[in-house]
Input
Amino acid sequence: MKAALFVGGAALALSSSFVLAQSAPESLLPPGFDDPAPAPSPTPTPRPTATSTAAPAPSATNTPVIQPLPELDVADIELPPDLPSLEELEAMDTDELDELLGLKPRDDIPRAARRSLAEVGVLAPDEGGFATGSLAAQPASLVRAALAGTRGPLVSRWGHILLRRALASRLAAPEGMDPVDFAALRAATLNSIGEYTAARAIAQDVDTSNWNGALTGAALDAYIATGDIVGACPAVQLQGSDRDEARWQLWRSICSAFAGQGVRAGTELSRALSRGTAPAIDVLLAQRYAGAAGSGRRAVNLEWEEVNEITPWRFALATAVGAEIPENLLADPEPYYQRVTAIAPMLAPIARAEGADRAAREGILSASAMVDLYSQIYAIEGAEGPAAATAASLREAYVGQPAARLPAIREIWGSSNSPAYGRLVLTAYAAARLRPSEDLTEAAAQLIASMLAAGLDRDAMEWAPVVEQGSQAWALLALAQPDPQDSIGGGPLDTFIDADESAGQRKSRFLVAALAALGRIDGDTAQSYSERVGIDLSRETKWMRMIERAADVDNPALVALLAGLGMQGEGWERMTARHLFHIVSALNRVGLSAEARMIAAEAVARG
Output
């Protein structure tokens, strides 16, 4: 390369000397263009006479001198040892050539527009987020362990909501932790609990030129889960050939198509299909997606016959291009696909309803979002099926005759005595519209649990005069009570424990532990009933000492992270009464009493 540059420079210099040696430049214009018709002479205007100085005659010193070129021996030039061969150069794509020649930009954002890494997040303190410096003075190893250890859904809907709030807050990184690593850990944790939209927002709050491998990986997972394939293109194009996995290569081709390089993208994807760079269905879906970028579209037949499983990449691209996925691949979908289906705006509302129950149960969708979804389903003319029937029952629960509202709510819950928690979330606001009555006490426990699923504690407390002491409805209100009250006596608690038929008296254990954590039974009563139901609240683990220490220093954000770490699991059978006691106690002590009360009531309702 250097030799070629030197030789080219020599040729340029020599040609320049010949130009200087010419007596006059040679015209390239057709005859007649050199001598245009003379313009009419303007009428002279009288001007003041001035003394003019004649220009000096050219002298020998003003004559241009052509310096002779030094003799150059190309054989003396040493070429770099890692210079690619001609075959390798031909095989390189544009990004690789740009990188080789130093033409690849390392930053796509002007210096004045670059964002600081001092605070990363999307939820400011005045928007409900935690204080910006909450974790700045905490040990980086502790924060890293809490985030890296949270790798699954939480048993509690309210615990999920609290953890999402903490992870999405605008926070400074702990001292000694790289801010990009901190953002990557938070995005990965959000992905693990199904909060893909929040994970994408965290990644987007960091300039793509600052992304490291961990943040890039977490961001790509979030972009796929949200179906936002093109959204990742700034990072994909900036990093170019830095990654070599098959999905990355397909992604680069898609981004090239949407950058106006349709021919290049088509060539790369055809080559990937012929070489088997990735499974054929993955490449075909990428071709279909890239083909939507410009006028050079061509038909792409998706061949699903040899496909035995669905993957996030296949689901995202098929959903984005409107391709129908064979039913056998989604006959028994994993929880991941239920979560992403529930939040996919490109899907029809009826299709989204299939995963909405899980998303509501886990805390991904709010009660308001559920009502909005089923309102859209109700508005679809001619809609049929279970989702349409649920939408019709929900409308009846809101605007039907008073006597028909509870039956409509029960229709949504189903025939089971223990309705799915996602359905309780759906009916929360409809339940709050019912007037408390002794005639409805049979359904009071489920109605109250439904209201508390959406945090409607004030509405739930209106049922206090009509519920039976010692019932499950009474227990839920005893925990959800927002105002200070006297200690609870032993009579109703005895009644609740005696009637408890849950496995291992789990509800009774949760109730005793939560009442003790909220300070609603005194120490002696807590000790007595703990022994009765077989729990030891005095035993501690390392995690319990950590969350209590975080409460001692009054750090809500750290308590929230540690609470999320302790609430992992698919069901409440994974939660122990001791864990619940320390979580509710720590949250209550740092000012998160609303979350503490809702988690406690949820434990008894779902235990």
